[in-house]
Design goal:
2 copies of one chain form a homodimer. In chain A, α5 packs antiparallel against α6 and α5 runs antiparallel to α8. Chain A is mainly α. The structure holds a DNA duplex.
Chain lengths: ~220, ~220
DNA sequence: ATGTCAAATAATATCGATTTTTTCTGGAGA
DNA sequence: TCTCCAGAAAAAATCGATATTATTTGACAT
């Protein structure tokens, strides 16, 4: 009834597979915030043993997508407006640092990668492909990855994931206006290709603040 | 049916205990960077089963103290000058953000906590207590924790740990001059108590840069 | 009715053993 | 001598079952 959707064939290990699937379910809201995650239940859902499930949950714990409670098992991490705003704040800070470093290291190969990722993202956006999310993240990470700062990139990636979770929760995953966004992406790309760090970071941060406000307004507390 | 031997009272779970001990061994260099971490070996060392060891290693993976390699197990994370410099860079950036936010929220209770932590740290330093490391971290985290930004604090704590690892590796864990450091701590404390964000962050960052250079000089590549 | 405690239930945490996968070793062919 | 392959050994990943710990239930006393 379900699972052949995400499968790109390669499942190296049961643990890794469970990690990917659980992570996806949490990001999309299929496993809602705060929900108790019982081993048995997940074991059945993922059709695997208890050990891989348990290990996958441990990994998700450090991605801050799952909380471990004393001796009482696991639950999907809760959400709050406060948490959302912190994510936004940190993203603005860290991605600015990373983007400036990326531009400082700019070279032809990086520019090529950027153009390519942007193109793929546009293509996926037009035909409403289910992998738009992936392409979108790939573009954003490509902007940053020329910084050659792996820890920073890791944090940015983590925060990116925490953020898309709020997008799904607030809007069912697709309802934020794509025209606006496309133009914003274009501006960021152009500035990056011109090695204009000030302009690129300004556009990037505006991009985040704008969608941030949009989402913030959709939340209660 | 046995385990009341370990006199330290609070071992909530075998997994958590293994996590703490392994983490300590990696931070202090007892398990050197790059070392293969075999389950059997650790199982014997920690006197526990394979499951807790495995789960502890998973947790350490996301602290970036352990690397998981495909289907080939785990190893202690490698070190490099490059990695060290990135840690330094990120700490300066993130801790400045956190410290400014802390000072912005300053109140009497926070100031009390600061003074107390500082006092404990000085006391531990004088009598060369083995828990100086803990007191030192507690003081630094107390500077930041009034920011009320849990994600940021988590990152700062992680980076702090990654950094003390380099201290142990470079100097056997204790040889960096304590007089200097005491004065620097005092300056940071005073500035924070005066709610002087500029001065506090300047002193804090200088503090990091200085010990950073000291350690950097002790490294080869 | 209500609060408390003990037995029953459910879920977690852990262990021991099995199954895969990788790594090591040694010999046959070039 | 070197490379390539098969078989043996080692290690990791996974499973099934047990022990431990939390939660619920229901009877009893207030």
């Amino acid at each position: 009834m379900d699972a052949m959707l995400d499968t790109e064939g390669k499942e190296t290990s049961a643990t890794h597979g469970a990690y990917r699937r659980l992570r996806n379910m949490i990001l999309t809201g299929e496993l809602p915030p705060g929900q108790k995650l019982k081993i048995e239940q997940l074991r059945g859902l993922l059709d695997t043993g208890a050990s891989p499930v348990r290990e996958a949950l441990s990994l998700l714990t450090s991605d801050m997508l799952v909380e471990r409670i004393d001796q009482r098992g696991f639950r999907a991490a809760p959400v709050s407006k406060c948490n959302f705003e912190e994510i936004l704040l940190l993203r603005c800070n860290l991605e600015e640092t990373a983007l400036r470093a990326s531009i400082a290291n700019a070279d032809g190969a990086w520019e090529d990668r950027l153009v390519l990722r942007h193109h793929h993202m546009k293509k996926a956006s037009q035909k409403g492909a289910p992998d738009f999310e992936d392409a979108h993240k790939a573009f954003h990470m490509a902007l940053l990855d020329n910084s050659k700062l792996p820890l920073l990139l890791r944090y940015c990636s983590q925060l990116y994931d925490l953020n898309i979770r709020y997008r799904y929760l607030a809007a069912g995953g697709s309802s934020y206006k794509k025209r606006d966004i496309a133009a914003e992406h274009q501006q960021i790309l152009d500035a990056a290709l011109n090695h204009d760090a000030d302009s690129a970071t300004r556009h990037l941060i505006d991009h985040y603040r704008r969608t941030g406000e949009y989402l913030s307004n959709q939340m209660e507390p």
